[in-house]
Design brief:
The protein is mostly helical and about 70 residues long. The protein has one domain (about 10-69). Helices cover about 80% and strands about 0% of the residues. The chain has two helices and no strands.
């Protein structure tokens, strides 16, 4: 049989997966902020690491947009 070629749908799925991971990071940050406000967060430095992770993910997405043009 002939080999299957990669289509644009495959790249769209990858973009959706990246968006989901970004959404997950943002929800993690939101939950950490709520627990910090309630005094339940043991290590408040986690907030900074979540913010940096989100920034890294956004940077990756913006770099990929530049390569596509």
């Amino acid at each position: 049989m002939a080999e299957k070629k990669t289509t644009k749908k495959a790249t769209a799925k990858k973009a959706d997966a990246k968006a989901k991971s970004l959404d997950e990071l943002r929800t993690d940050l939101q939950l950490a902020r709520k627990s910090h406000a309630a005094g339940e967060l043991v290590n408040p430095r986690v907030l900074k690491s979540y913010r940096k992770d989100i920034a890294r993910e956004l940077t990756k997405q913006n770099m990929n947009k530049g390569e596509e043009k």
